[in-house]
């Protein structure tokens, strides 16, 4: 094992980790806001990847350009899902937690089925984009451009999110609703509007990740599943509901995955992630940066 | 006659054994169960398979002019012209769902035989259920060698298995070495279900016997979100030949990641699966010029045997795709099974089994480059010669063995 191989693995792990963070943060946001785990999170990612693909296939819009469009469309989609589905699931009098789980889980299966029906299960990919397949090489370390752009977008999105939550009125309303949904109603904040906005924002963030990923990953109806699992681990590791826990969790997952694959046979590379995850959950059940 | 649920429940063993017999005795049609993944990650394979089986069904049930068993005349003459009907079931790539579906097909749909399954892991459980109910199972496109070594009486495979394929690859390497080309080290890269594991084991075994050195043997987790660590190791090992055994999704990611990490092997010799899929070449075909994959089918054969081209057109109008290694085997699988049912003159599982065991179809009466179809006592056809195909200028050409080849291999890849 050469020093170069180690650095290469760490670099790949870091780039992938930043993207894992971006995929997971929408999940963390929605959970933090209203204690609902969105089990259709991976399918949101899948829809975003297809959107990006179709914008490329029909209108030749490069995924990097269409990323904001996809994020905007996903924002609307997320808000609509809240208003049409989740809002009603939350009204359940008995077993509210279970109802929410099964609602979002059912939504996931429905979305997967619809995707398979309308888009066919064939594997799609975007063969030619501005950065697709291109690589920057620094001292023998290869950094794929799509992942570099993904990492940059991820950092920018987290920066923007920080600014939004701490510096804008709506961000403050979001935080306040998260802390005490009952009290905000008294000061005239419409809880439903905030929740719908939170779902929109969460979907927009995973939409951004999906648009970037469409450049270097294949697209098919089940693609969300493998990333959703990583997103749940990331959120649990970083801290339920903590936006910056998601960033830290993503980076840790990416790095641990890369190092495990370097030290152990690659078929065991997820073992490292789940070992770290178990350890953290045992010692600190709310996750590394969880505040609840 | 009608069978109520209560009848079936009354004395489970007796009913299960007798009712199907009675129900099958005087039918004007024979029902065959077809089990594939129609949802989930491999659903496209199931959908393509369905088109292949429907093409075969047209050849069997309608009057066509091909030199294939059952092509001329309508239906099965041995059963008074009875038509074949297919019942499709979805196993979702899950061996347990496959087992349940097989059981349902046998007990509820009264199928006379089952054919499937794309994933070898699912073929394992389905063939066991078939054995228990004494219903023949035709493994149309599974390639794991362990499948026919379980002492099953009702298991049949007309196509080659991975040891035969792998042996062909090493025959090819030996031939290339005789021409003075340096092939000493190999990298194996295989996924962690039964297909990849069996393939990797077969390749490691033959490599040892013939004196090739395996410099990296990477068993990876199927459907991983990232393969950069794996590719990094392949790159470090830098073998003369990279030998992947991967399904489509992993194949696409592997090739993309290799390009990203600047790894370009001298040659890739793939164990089919993803590397025979149009989707993979649509996605990353530009990076695969010169890749070699094994197969049992080659459209080149149409030059010698025109019916191959015509049947391919029939399939293409249905699916929009040319026959590939999988769909051609599926097509042939149903023809072979229907031929046996016809000769058995019965829809009874045991009689069909005996007819299958007595099968002897010359290679010219298939769409494959095989010597013939004749099963040994384990249900394996050992005369199914594999071919090696090279991807050149957007299509596959046969490069090995010499008697089937229409072009010389390009080595290194590009």
Automatic annotation (TrEMBL), chain A:
The family classification in the record reads: Belongs to the binding-protein-dependent transport system permease family. LivHM subfamily.
Location of this chain's protein in the cell: Cell membrane
Q: What GO molecular functions are on record for this protein? A: transmembrane transporter activity
Gene Ontology biological process terms in this record: amino acid transport
Q: What is its main location?
A: membrane
| Name of the molecule in the record | Branched-chain amino acid ABC transporter permease
Source organism per UniProt:
Bradyrhizobium betae
Q: Which residues cross the membrane?
A: 6-32, 44-61, 67-86, 98-119, 148-165, 194-220, 226-255, 262-283
Which GO CC annotations does the UniProt entry carry? plasma membrane
Q: Which InterPro entries match?
A: ABC_transp_permease, BCAA_transport_permease
TrEMBL record, chain B:
Q: Classify the source by domain of life.
A: Bacteria
Q: List each copy of the Leucine-binding protein domain by range.
A: 30-381
Q: Which UniProt keywords apply?
A: Amino-acid transport, Signal, Transport
Question: Which CDD domains does the entry mention?
Answer: PBP1_ABC_ligand_binding-like
Q: Which InterPro entries does this UniProt record tie to the protein?
A: BCAA_transport, Leu-bd, Peripla_BP_I, TAT_signal
Gene Ontology biological process: amino acid transport
Q: What protein family is recorded?
A: Belongs to the leucine-binding protein family.
Protein's name in the database: ABC transporter substrate-binding protein
Q: Which organism encodes this protein?
A: Bradyrhizobium betae
Where is the organism placed in the taxonomic lineage, from the top?
Bacteria, Pseudomonadati, Pseudomonadota, Alphaproteobacteria, Hyphomicrobiales
């Amino acid at each position: 094992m050469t020093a170069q191989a180690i650095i290469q693995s760490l670099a790949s792990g870091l780039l992938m980790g930043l993207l894992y963070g971006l995929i997971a943060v929408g999940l963390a946001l929605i959970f933090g806001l209203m204690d609902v785990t969105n089990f259709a999170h991976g399918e949101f990612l899948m829809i975003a990847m297809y959107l990006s693909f179709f914008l490329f296939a029909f209108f030749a819009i490069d995924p990097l350009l269409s990323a904001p469009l996809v994020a905007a469309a996903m924002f609307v989609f997320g808000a609509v899902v809240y208003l049409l589905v989740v809002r009603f699931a939350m009204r359940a009098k008995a077993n509210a937690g279970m109802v929410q789980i099964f609602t979002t889980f059912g939504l996931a299966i429905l979305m997967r089925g619809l995707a398979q029906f309308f888009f066919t299960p064939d594997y799609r990919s975007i063969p030619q984009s501005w950065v697709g397949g291109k690589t920057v090489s620094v001292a023998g370390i290869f950094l794929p451009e799509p992942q570099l752009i993904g990492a940059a977008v991820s950092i920018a999105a987290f920066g923007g999110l920080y600014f939004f939550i701490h510096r804008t009125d709506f961000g403050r309303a979001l935080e306040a609703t998260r802390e005490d949904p009952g009290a905000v109603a008294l000061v005239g904040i419409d809880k439903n509007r905030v929740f719908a906005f939170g779902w929109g924002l969460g979907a927009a963030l995973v939409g951004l990740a999906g648009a970037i990923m469409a450049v270097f990953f294949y697209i098919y109806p089940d693609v969300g599943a493998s990333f959703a699992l990583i997103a749940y681990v990331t959120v649990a590791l970083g801290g339920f509901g903590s936006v910056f826990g998601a960033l830290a969790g993503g980076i840790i997952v990416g790095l641990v995955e890369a190092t495990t694959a370097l030290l152990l046979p690659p078929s065991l590379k997820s073992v490292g992630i789940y070992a770290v995850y178990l350890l953290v959950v045992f010692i600190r059940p709310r996750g590394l940066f969880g505040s609840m | 006659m009608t069978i109520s649920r209560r009848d079936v429940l009354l004395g489970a063993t007796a009913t299960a054994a007798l009712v199907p017999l009675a129900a099958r005795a005087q039918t004007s049609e024979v029902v065959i169960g077809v089990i594939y993944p129609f949802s989930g990650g491999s659903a496209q394979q199931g959908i393509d398979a369905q088109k292949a089986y429907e093409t075969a069904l047209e050849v069997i049930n309608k009057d066509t002019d091909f030199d294939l068993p059952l092509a001329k005349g309508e239906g099965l003459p041995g059963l008074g012209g009875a038509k074949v009907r297919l019942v499709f079931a979805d196993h979702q790539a899950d061996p347990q769902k496959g087992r349940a579906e097989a059981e349902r097909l046998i007990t509820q749909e009264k199928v006379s035989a089952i054919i499937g399954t794309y994933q070898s892991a699912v073929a394992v459980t389905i063939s066991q259920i078939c054995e228990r109910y004494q219903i023949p199972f035709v493994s149309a496109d599974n390639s794991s060698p362990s499948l026919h070594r379980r002492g099953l009486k009702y298991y049949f495979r007309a196509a080659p298995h991975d040891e035969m394929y792998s042996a062909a690859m090493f025959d090819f390497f030996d031939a290339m070495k005789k021409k003075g080309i340096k092939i000493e080290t190999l990298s194996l890269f295989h996924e962690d279900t039964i297909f990849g594991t069996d393939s990797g084991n077969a390749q490691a075994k033959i490599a040892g016997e013939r004196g090739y050195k395996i410099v990296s043997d990477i068993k990876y987790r199927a459907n991983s979100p990232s393969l950069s660590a794996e590719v990094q190791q392949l790159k470090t090992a830098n073998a003369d030949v990279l030998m992947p055994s991967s399904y489509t999704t992993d194949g696409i990611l592997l090739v993309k990641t290799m390009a990203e990490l600047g790894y370009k092997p001298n040659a890739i010799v793939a164990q089919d699966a993803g590397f025979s899929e149009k989707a993979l070449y649509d996605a990353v075909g530009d990076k695969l010029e010169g890749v070699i994959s094994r197969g049992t089918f080659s459209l080149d054969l149409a030059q010698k045997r025109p019916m191959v081209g015509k049947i391919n057109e029939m399939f293409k109008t249905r699916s929009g795709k040319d026959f590939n290694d999988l769909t051609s085997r599926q097509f042939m699988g149903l023809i072979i099974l229907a031929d046996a049912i016809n000769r058995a003159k019965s829809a009874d599982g045991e009689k069909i089994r005996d007819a299958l065991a007595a099968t002897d179809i010359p290679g010219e009466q298939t769409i494959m480059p095989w010597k013939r179809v004749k099963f040994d006592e384990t249900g394996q056809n050992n005369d199914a010669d594999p071919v090696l195909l090279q991807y050149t200028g957007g299509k596959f050409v046969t490069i090995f063995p010499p008697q089937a080849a229409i072009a010389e291999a390009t080595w290194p890849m590009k």
